[in-house]
Amino acid sequence: MADEPESLDDGLDDGPEPGLAEHLDELAELHEQERKALARCPNCGSPNIRRSHSDGIRDKLLRLFGRRAFRCRDCRDRFHASRGLMRS
Q1: Rounded distance, CA 70 to CA 40, Å?
Q2: What is the pLDDT of residues 29-84, one digit of tens each?
Q3: pTM score of the predicted model
Q4: What is the CA angle 22-83-31, rounded to 5?
Q5: For residue 13, is it within any domain?
Q6: Is residue 65 part of a domain?
Q7: Which of 44, 46, 52, 48 is nearest to 81 (CA)?
Q8: Average pLDDT over residues 7-19
Q9: Do β-strands 49-51 and 67-72 pair in parallel, antiparallel, or remain unpaired?
Q10: Given 3-state DSSP classes, what are the helix, strand and coil percentages for the chain, each rounded to the nearest 5?
């Protein structure tokens, strides 16, 4: 018997497992729902918030660390949160 060349097939062309794309879509949707649930006023819990104008040195310093000013439209409380968390 002659030596047969070894296969170069390493499985990279197989594509994702069945259901993997659906699983990743579900995870992305859960992440989005969690993010939206966390985008609430820490004072009253209302999701009715908006970005607030930055003013003063405190806002500028917090911005360096990725924190932005927000204001609740219901209780008028002003607070700082991660801009990635509150991005809609």
Answers
A1: 10
A2: 777 766 665 678 999 999 899 999 888 999 999 989 888 999 999 999 999 988 76
A3: 0.54
A4: 20
A5: no
A6: yes
A7: 52
A8: 59
A9: antiparallel
A10: 40, 15, 45
Could you say which DSSP state residue 49 is in?
Answer: E
Instruction: Dig out the tokens for 22 from the structure.
Output: 């659906």
Place of tokens 């995870």: 27
Token pair 């003063």 is found at: 56
User: Measuring CA to CA, which residue among 72, 73, 69 is closest to residue 81?
Assistant: 69
> How many degrees, rounded to 5, is the angle at CA 18 between CA 17 and CA 20?
70
Is 30 a member of any domain?
no
Give me the domain span that covers residue 82: 43-88
Amino acid at residue number 10: D
Per-residue pLDDT at 12: 57
Q: Six-digit token pair at 50?
A: 């908006």
The verdict on residue 87 lying in a domain is yes
